[in-house]
Amino acid sequence: MPGGYFKRIDQSRTADGICAQIETLVLEGVLRVGDKLPGERELARRFDVSRPVLREALKELESRGLLVTRHGGGTFVADVIGDVFSPAMLELIARHPKATQDYLEYRRDVEGIAAAYAAERATDHDKALLTDIMTRMETAHAQENLDEEAESDIEFHNAVCESAHNILLMHALRSCYRLLQNGVFFSRALVYGLPGARAALLSQHRAVYDAIMAGDAAAAKRAAEAHMEYIQTHRLEAERIRSWEAVSQLRHAQRTESAEAPRDERRKPSRQRSQPVS
Question: What does it do (predicted)?
């Protein structure tokens, strides 16, 4: 983990100071779910505290559910976001198409707000991170590296919501992205597979990026909303194409099996005389 996350504890070097600093890093999204903390010796050095004081702080944070220690594996940021819905509710959501439309509608509105805030509030460091992600996305697109492009897509959306500098907005959107990554609503690969979709999505991300870089909140909001509207429309198209493909595969398999069967096992033709179809 890069240096600079953890600062020297100046006042009395107590466990409370360490707890307060790590709490803030988690709340602000600097430390994310699953991030591993440095080893005990290194962390004590960065905080400039004794190891017993550090252990006391880590134990307190673990009792609060912010950290989790894996035997022999180190200390990690706990799953502080958790599951927004129960397994039973997730099953219901996955089985009802309206829930997916509602999810995308919600994201359209919230991501539009996040992009507008990002255009107004993004710092130089925020912009540097967005630029790095945008560059990697464009490189992956040029190299036709779908996995890297999709990963950069997720990182870009996360970076935009982080650049909005609104804690509740950031954690709400992270919960949304988790549902998508877990495949609750639909697979992103569906939309990526449509002809021209990858180029269109890249162009949309670029529009959001350019507006944030320019500090144009209205343009950033419009670009983010247009992006989500594209996903809404083309997800339905992709679902239809997938359905057609599934049916055509079954039809082809049945026809092939029928053609290969012995003549006496094939379906007997109707006695009714065939009529032309046109």
Answer: Transcriptional repressor for the pyruvate dehydrogenase complex genes aceEF and lpd.
Q: Can you list the positions of beta strands (E) in the chain?
A: 67-70, 74-77
- Give the 3-state secondary structure percentages of the chain, helix then strand then coil, rounded to 5: 70, 5, 30
CATH assignment of the domain containing 229: 1.20.120.530
Q: Provide the CB-side half-sphere exposure for 97 (13 A, CA).
A: 5
Reported as a single tens digit per residue, the pLDDT across 12-50 is 668 999 999 999 999 888 898 889 999 999 999 999 999
CA 128/CA 134 separation, integer angstroms: 10
Structural domain count, the chain = 2
pTM of the predicted model over 0.85: no
Give per-residue pLDDT as tens, 172-206. 898 888 877 766 555 567 777 788 889 999 999 99
Question: Same structural domain for residues 160 and 129?
Answer: yes
Q: Residue 170 has which token pair?
A: 């950031």
